[in-house]
Amino acid sequence: MKYFMTTDGIIYNEDLKPIILDDNNEEYKQYLLFLKSNGTVEQLNQNALDNSIEDEFLKYKNRKAEGENLYLKISAILRVNKLKGIISEDEHQSIENELSSIRQELVLGQWITAQYKMSSLNINIIGQDLYVDIQNRIEYYIKYNYE
C-alpha cells in the first residue's frame, strides 16, 4: 500500500482518494498501522493530483454524454413503438416512469449506479426485450469504459 500527502496535509491512498481522518474509518486505521510499521508517506505532487482530477473529470463528461445518448436512443425506440401501435400512450408513460431512476443515473454519467438500479425495475412493465437490451448496453459500456 502507498500513501501520499499534499503540502497542505491531505492524505491520499494509492488510488488518489483522500483518507478521512477519523478513528472509526477503517482506511484511516490501516494508514495508522502503515505508519507504525515504519511505512513512508510520499509527497504528492499537486500537479499530478490536479492532472488525475482533470482526467477523471473528462471521463465523467464523456460518460454523461454517452449516457444521455443511450437514453435518447431508448426514448426513440419507445416513441417509434408507440407511433406504430406496438405500445399505447399509457404503456409508453408507464415504461418511462419505470425507467426514471435509470434515466437519472445515465444522464449524469453514473453507469455503475444505473446498472445497480436495473435490478429494481419491474420487467413486466418495461418488457423482457427492452430490459435485456438496456442491461446489455450498460454492461458493455462499463466493461469497456471503466478501469
Side-by-side strand order of the widest sheet: 2-1-3
Low-pLDDT runs:
none
Helix content: 55-70%
> How many distinct helices?
7
- What is the percentage of strand-forming residues? under 5%
Inertia-based shape: elongated
What is the β-strand count?
3
Q: What's the mean pLDDT score?
A: 91
Characterize the main sheet: 3 strands, mixed
Using only CA atoms, what is the Rg?
22 Å
Structural class by SSE content: mainly alpha
Return the string of H and E elements: EEHEHHHHHH
Count of individual domains? 2
Distance between the termini: 19 Å
How does this model look, in words?
The protein has 147 residues and is mainly α. It folds into 2 domains: 4-43, no CATH class; 58-145, no CATH class. The protein is 66% helix and 4% strand. It is built from 7 helices and 3 strands; from the N terminus they run ββαβαααααα. Strands 2-1-3 form a 3-stranded mixed β-sheet, with no helix packed on it. A hairpin with a 5-residue loop joins β1 and β2. α2 (46-83) runs antiparallel to α4, α4 (100-107) runs antiparallel to α5 (111-118) and α5 runs antiparallel to α7. The mean pLDDT is 91.
Task: Write out key terms for the chains shown.
mainly alpha; 2 domains; elongated; three-stranded mixed beta sheet; 7 helices; 147 residues
Short description:
With 147 residues, this protein is mainly alpha-helical. The protein contains seven helices and three strands, in the order E-E-H-E-H-H-H-H-H-H.
